């Protein structure tokens, strides 16, 4: 049995699972999303290049990926620190910080934020999508990738002694690439060795989550300790959703606060509203999946911060919980989604 068994590992060290409290299972506190810059539509070049300002906020909400400045969340540590104080005041306890290799993971910054604010912060091991893999990463064997991921959990990452407490978010594209498949295999092997939580970013296709779960299963992964992220922009049909839910992973709705007409990365997708997200949660609760649900905001661009008129890290606690209670999800079920399910997922076996 490992020393981490029965514990949760934060950037400040291992803690008892009961200390976590209300937990957002998918956020970013510092990162860059430059890998995923999306050219503005013809005619929008001027607004896209302008500094972020009040009169452009609606455009930015609709086109968050077409402004270089907006993609640099790593420039906003002071604003994020203030927001974490607010998050504590709103009753928040823990944030799982999903930034992995490729999008400027900064564990020393996370450690300082945890010290400054008292919020428990859990760092992520492993790799984001193929577009961010280095040539060296692409050439690595599954065994080498596994060793690196295990070391990021047991000894520390990025040349520090700060240890990750979860593997992921592990990035997958659609269609999935060879390098991403190797990282998934390494993830499953590392999970087998460590008994740790895993979180996945699926490609943008309704078939992606199930394909990824099958790949993890074939490599020996523990699906009951795995979160499938971003279901709100990935699976829309209730029948397909239930088919996927049967596979046994945690089901994550993590884009709360994000409402936009055109989703740049897949124009086929109608990004749901928060009301539709709550409806999806209520449907899954009704179908018996209340022990599998987790939620978050996945803040990964500046416009989502309250400093820029966004929803911030406390939106779920302040606005979405009352809505859930008004739409047939009771307090016990809310507590499962915000406290019990994250706690079970994050505790090392
Ligand atoms: C790194 C942040 C991230 O991957 N967020 C998901 C964005 S989206 O794929 O849901 O658009």
Short key terms for the protein model shown above:
alpha/beta, 6-stranded parallel sheet, 3-stranded parallel sheet, 12% strand, globular, binds ligand LB7ARUS3
Task: Describe this structure as you would to a colleague.
- It is a single chain.
- Helix 6 (142-154) crosses helix 7 and helix 7 packs across helix 8 (208-218).
- Strand 7, helix 7 (178-194) and strand 8 form a beta-alpha-beta unit.
- The chain has helices spanning 45-49, 57-62, 77-89, 107-117, 135-139, 142-154, 178-194, 208-218, 238-245, 274-286, 315-325, 331-346; strands at residues 8-10, 13-15, 22-27, 92-97, 120-122, 124-125, 166-171, 198-201, 226-228, 250-253, 293-295.
- The mean pLDDT is 98.
- The chain is globular, with a radius of gyration of 19 Å.
- The strands form three sheets. Strands 6-7-8-9-10-11 form a six-stranded parallel sheet. A three-stranded parallel sheet has the order 3-4-5.
- With 349 residues, it is of the alpha/beta class.
- It contains twelve helices and eleven strands.
- It starts with 7 loop residues before the first strand and ends with a helix.
- The structure holds the ligand CCC(=O)NCCS(=O)(=O)O.
- The site of the ligand CCC(=O)NCCS(=O)(=O)O has 9 residues, from loops.
Number of strands: 11
Rg, nearest Å: 19 Å
Mean of residue pLDDT values? 98
- Tell me the major beta sheet: 6 strands, parallel
Q: Helix/strand/pairing class, anyone?
A: alpha/beta
Question: What ligand molecules are bound, each kind once?
Answer: ligand LB7ARUS3
Number of helical stretches of at least 4 residues = 12
Give the distance, in angstroms, between the N- and C-terminal Cα atoms. 8 Å
Gross morphology? globular
Element-by-element helix/strand order: EEEHHHEHEEHHEHEHEHEHEHH
Uncertain ranges: none
Strand order within the widest beta sheet: 6-7-8-9-10-11
Beta-strand portion reads 5-15%
Helix content: 25-40%
């Amino acid at each position: 049995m490992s020393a981490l068994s029965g514990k949760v590992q934060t950037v400040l060290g291992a803690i008892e699972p009961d200390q976590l409290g209300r937990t957002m299972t998918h956020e970013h506190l510092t990162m860059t999303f430059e890998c995923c810059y999306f050219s503005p539509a013809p005619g929008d070049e001027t607004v896209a290049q302008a500094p972020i300002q009040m009169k452009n906020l609606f455009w930015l909400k609709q086109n968050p990926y077409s402004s270089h400045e907006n993609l640099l969340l790593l420039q906003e540590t002071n604003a994020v620190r203030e927001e974490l104080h607010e998050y504590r005041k709103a009753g928040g306890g823990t944030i799982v910080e999903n930034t992995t290799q490729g999008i400027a993971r900064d564990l020393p910054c996370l450690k300082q934020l945890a010290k400054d604010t008292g919020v428990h912060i859990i760092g992520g091991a492993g790799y984001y999508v193929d577009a961010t893999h280095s040539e060296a990463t692409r050439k690595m064997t599954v065994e080498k990738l596994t060793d690196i991921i295990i070391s990021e959990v047991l000894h520390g990452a990025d040349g520090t002694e700060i240890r990750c407490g979860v593997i992921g978010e592990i990035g997958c594209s659609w269609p999935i690439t060879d390098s991403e498949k190797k990282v998934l295999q390494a993830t499953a092997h590392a999970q087998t060795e460590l008994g740790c939580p895993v979180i996945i970013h699926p490609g943008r296709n309704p078939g992606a989550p199930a394909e990824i779960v099958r790949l993890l299963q074939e490599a020996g992964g523990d699906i009951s300790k795995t979160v499938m992220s971003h279901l709100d922009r990935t699976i829309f049909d209730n029948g397909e959703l239930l088919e996927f839910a049967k596979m046994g992973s945690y089901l994550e709705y993590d884009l709360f606060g994000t409402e936009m007409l055109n989703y740049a990365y897949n124009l086929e997708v109608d990004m749901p509203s928060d009301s539709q997200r709550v409806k999806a949660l209520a449907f899954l609760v009704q179908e018996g999946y209340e022990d599998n649900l987790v939620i978050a905001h996945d803040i990964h661009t500046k416009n989502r911060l309250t400093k820029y008129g966004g929803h911030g890290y406390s939106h779920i606690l302040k606005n979405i919980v009352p809505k859930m209670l008004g739409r047939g999800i009771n307090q016990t079920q809310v507590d499962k989604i915000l406290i019990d399910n994250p706690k079970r997922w994050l505790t090392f076996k």
